[in-house]
Amino acid sequence: MSRIMRAAWGSLAVSLVALGLKLAAWWVTGSVALYSDALETIINVVAAVAALLALRVSARPADPGHPYGHQKAEYFSAVLEGMMVIGAAAAILHEVYGAWAHPAVPDAPLLGMAINGAATVLNAAWAAYLLRAGRAWRSPAILASGRHVLTDVWTSAGVLVGFALVPLTGWAWLDPALAGLVAVNIVWTGVSMVRDSVGALMDRALDPAMLAAVRRVIAEGAEGALEAHDLRTRASGDVSFVEFHLVVPAAMTVGEAHAICDRLEDALRAEIGEAVITIHLEPEGQAQRRGVPVL
Predict the structure, then answer these.
(1) How far lies 133's CA from each of 47, 83, 238, 261, in Å?
(2) Domain limit, last residue, from 170, 186, 201
(3) What pLDDT digit, counting tens, does each position of 143-173 carry?
(4) How far apart are CA 47 and CA 152, in angstroms?
(5) Would you state the pLDDT for residue 288?
(6) How many Å is the maximal CA-CA distance in the chain?
(7) What is the per-residue pLDDT for 40?
(8) Distance between CA atoms of 220 and 228, rounded to whole angstroms?
(9) In total, how many domains does the chain have?
(10) Are residues 133 and 104 in contact, defined by beta-carbon separation less than 8 angstroms?
(11) Which of 101, 129, 185, 202 is the most buried (most CB within 10 A)?
C-alpha cells in the first residue's frame, strides 16, 4: 500500500473517531453549536471515502484510453469535498435559524467541552500531518483533506470558546450565533477548495516557484543549445508536464542534440519530481530571442 493510500485510510479512521466524540458531546449538551460541529465532521467521513476512491483511480497506470494517466481523479475528489463543505454550512445555517428563534442554555457544558476538546486535539494533529504530507507528495486529494480537517479544527475551537461563554454569561443566543459564524467560515473554505481544484482541471500552469525552478534548470543545464522558448507547464496530481522548444546549432548532430535533451530531462526530474517532459528540437534559424536563454 502506498504512503498516500495509508494517509487516506488514516483520514477515514481519524474522522470516524472524531465523529463519535462530537456526537457524544452534542448528545450530552443538546447544543446547536456542537451539533453543527458534529455535522461538519460527518462530511469529513464522506469526503475521506471519496478521497480513497479517487486515489485508487488515480493510481492506475496510463492505458490506451487514458494515455496521460488517471491522476486528475484526485481533483474531482477535491471538488466534491469542497461542495460537501458548502453543503454542511447550509445545513448548519438551517439549524441556526431554529435555535435563534428559541435559544436555550446547553446542558452539562463542562463534559461537552471536554469531549469536544479531545476530538479537536485529534483533528489538529492529523490536519498538520495531512497538510505537510500533501505538499510534500503533491497530492491534491490529501491536501484537500488536510484543509478540510483544519476547517473542522477551527470550527471546533470557535465552538468551544463560545460554548464556554454561554454558561458564564447566561447569553443563550451565543450558541446559535457562534454556529452561524462557523458556517460562514466553512463556506469560505469550501469555495477556496473548489476554486483551486477547478483551476487544476483547467490545466493551470505550475506554481510560480516551481515554474521559476524549471526555467533555471533549462538555462543552466542546456549547455550546447542556444535558446528554449514556448515553455508550457501544467500539473496532474503529483505529475508535472513540461513542454518547450529547444533551439540548437544547425550543424549539431541528432546524437548531440539528444544528449542535451536527456541531460535536461534528468535535471528537471531531479528538481521537480515525477514529470512528463516533451522537448521539440529546432535548428538555429528558428530562435525567437524571447525565450529562456541558455547560460
Answers:
(1) 18, 23, 12, 32
(2) 201
(3) 777 887 887 788 788 778 777 777 777 777 7
(4) 13
(5) 61
(6) 86
(7) 73
(8) 11
(9) 2
(10) no
(11) 129
Q: Are 170 and 105 in contact (CB under 8 A)?
A: yes
Mean pLDDT for all residues in the chain: 82
| Residue at which a domain ends, from 201, 223, 245 | 201
Task: Please report, as a single letter, which amino acid is at residue 109.
Answer: P
Query: Would the CA dihedral through 9, 10, 13, 19 be positive or negative?
Result: negative
**Cα torsion angle, 7, 10, 14, 19, sign:** positive
Q: What mean pLDDT comes out for the span 113-127?
A: 91
Strand partners, 244: 279
- DSSP letters of 219-251? HHH-BTB-EEEEEEEEEETTEEEEEEEEE--TT
How far apart (Å, rounded) are the C-alpha atoms in residues 32 and 228?
60
Assess whether 242 and 160 both reside in one domain: no
Structural domain of residue 266, as residue ranges?
208-293
Phi/psi class of residue 225: alpha, beta or left (left: φ > 0; alpha: ψ in -120 to 50)? beta
pTM, two decimal places: 0.60
What span, in angstroms and rounded, lies between the C-alpha atoms of 270 and 221? Answer: 12
107 band by pLDDT with thresholds 50, 70 and 90: low
DSSP label of 30: -
Strand partners, 241: 234, 276
Task: Look up residue 126 and give its three cell numbers.
Answer: 492529523
Taking only the tens place, the pLDDT of each residue in 44-91 is 787 777 777 777 777 788 788 888 777 777 677 777 777 777 877 787
Place of cell 550546447: 224
Query: Mapped to the 3 state alphabet, what secondary structure does 53-114 carry?
Result: HHHHHHCCCCECCECCCCCCHHHHHHHHHHHHHHHHHHHHHHHHHHHHHCCCCCCCHHHHHH
CATH code for the domain of 127? 1.20.1510.10
Identify the CA nearest to 141 among candidates 12, 1, 293, 32. Answer: 12
